[in-house]
Amino acid sequence: MTEWDIKKLQILRTLRDRGTVTATAEALRMTPSAVSQQLTNLARQLGVPLLEAQGRRVRLTDAAHLVLRHAESVFAQLERADAELAGYLRGEAGEVRVAAFSTAVPALVVPAVQQLRAEHPGLGVRVREAEAAEAYELLGAGDVDLALSLAAHAPPERDPKFSRVPLLADPLDVALPAGHPLAEAPGLRLADLSAEPWIFGGSGPWSEITTAACEAAGFVPEQAHSAAGWTAILAMVEAGMGVALVPRMASASASAERRAGVVMRVLAADQPRRHVVAAVRRGAEEGPALARVLGALRQAAVRRETVQQN
Predict the structure, then answer these.
(1) Are 101 and 150 in contact (CB under 8 A)?
(2) Is the dihedral of CA 90, 92, 94, 95 positive or negative?
(3) Exposure winner among 77, 210, 253, 285, fewest CB in 10 A?
(4) How far apart are CA 16 and CA 19, in angstroms?
């Protein structure tokens, strides 16, 4: 029978995901020569070539992709085994590590943790704030157990490493200076603001979400100022320096910082939204501790949506 070495298969999977031996070595805290040696040994054990030269780099062979298709089932089953064993050993106790983007922490994670403290006091949640894309890197590396991110920046649903759970469709409202001519205009649409100077981040998820929402409304936003934090964005809006799209989760958490000089307007027919998802490594969602955290996050999302609709 062919010998399947889990550690070496994990190295091969990381090479597929990272693209180069050097990046694989960095991700796994190995040397490039050690990575190459392990993959050479794996090819010898399996009896098939796994890599072929492509210029100065290497690419996976068709045989390597076949091996990984079967290996993904093994990895998922091992995650299930780990989850079941942890549940057996811990019962109601244990710790779940959660990575979440900044506005999701007060809006979803904190209410979920408060609920869990009341219902399952032996279950701990360790929270780590991370950008949307970084949350998946932490999840894939095993540094966290659950990633709270945006669907637009999640790996594709067919990715065999992760299971995704939709949580919330968060509406995007527009922040206008209090004296703006459209601050009180009825039926405000995003397209009505096509000629305005805009304030949003220079890169990253929020820049892409703002640009995509405006382009869907038929225009490319003119970026007058760049800022990532809501305190800075709302301060510039208040000063009349431009307008900005603000997720409703963010505007709720930043309400204490917002002064009378900013008017938040709900957009009419073309209301854009960003979709919040939770993700775990495939198979791990069957662990009781992780399932409880996912359940609490779902309930927090339902409460949030109920508040937004009222």
Answers:
(1) yes
(2) positive
(3) 77
(4) 6
